[in-house]
Design brief:
- Helices cover 11% and strands 46% of the residues.
- A hairpin with a 5-residue loop joins β2 and β3.
- Strands 5-4-1-2-3-6 form a 6-stranded antiparallel beta sheet.
- It has 119 residues and is mainly β.
Length: 119
């Protein structure tokens, strides 16, 4: 069973087809398997902004550290194909799960938002 460790917030940019906009995001850190860490990334983006930039299913979060993290629209609604449509909610949740950090050094390099957070 995964053990929740800590949450942190950050400021970065969302990149959709080369067009960027400031965005805030939330990180949730968990212990992964072995000595790894899992970071869940969550952000909200305006539906109309996304649609005007040709968003369909995925974008890139440029985090505070400059890491480029693919984020996805997990559409479990009536469309079934994952594509964003004008009838969707006005604010769209984009998420990712990153399990690439295999040490605390890797974790802090990629996610400095956790620096000083209570574990």
């Amino acid at each position: 069973m995964e053990k929740h460790i800590v949450e942190a917030d950050g400021n970065g940019e969302i990149d959709v087809n080369g067009q960027v906009s400031p965005v805030t995001y939330t990180l949730s850190l968990k212990e992964g398997k072995g000595r790894s860490y899992e970071v869940d990334v969550r952000l909200m983006a305006p539906r109309d902004w996304l649609l005007r930039r040709g968003f369909e299913r995925d974008a890139v979060l440029v985090s505070q550290s400059g890491a480029r993290i693919p984020v996805y629209h997990d559409d479990d609604s009536r469309h079934g194909d994952g594509r964003l449509e004008p009838a969707d909610a006005i604010s769209i949740e984009l998420t990712a799960r990153d399990d690439s950090c295999t040490s605390e050094v890797d974790l802090m390099r990629k996610y400095p938002e956790f620096d000083g957070a209570d574990a």
